[in-house]
Design goal:
By secondary structure, this protein is mainly beta. The chain is built from 1 helix and 11 strands; from the N terminus they run βββαββββββββ. Strand 9 and strand 10 form a beta hairpin. It holds the Pfam family Zn_Ribbon_YjdM. InterPro entries: YjdM (IPR004624), YjdM_C (IPR013988), YjdM_N (IPR013987).
Length: about 110
Amino acid sequence: MNLPPCPSCACEYTYEMGELIVCPECAYEWSPAEAEAAEAEAQIKDAYGTVLNNGDTVTIIKDLKVKGQALSIKVGTKVRNIRLVDGVGDHDIDCKVDGFGPMQLKSSVVKKA
């Protein structure tokens, strides 16, 4: 049987102990149901519920004011090669917007292209 690696230290040598999975390197214990729930929660979805992945292209669905600039990012602007991150607040997309430079966006203001 193929057991998942440890979510704490990424060790591949995990083993089962009763209903738990145990890591021999860091002694972290978790249940398989707990691991599945965390994996499902970790998915980042766009405004329409489509799962986003690193490297995707997304489209902005509403005008966004940019702090410190007079211009705003317009609806329909395409952003290529996004990276999913655990950013500040609920900003979970790291990207470079043409004409504005690098910034973080919320997944709730984009749709997968």
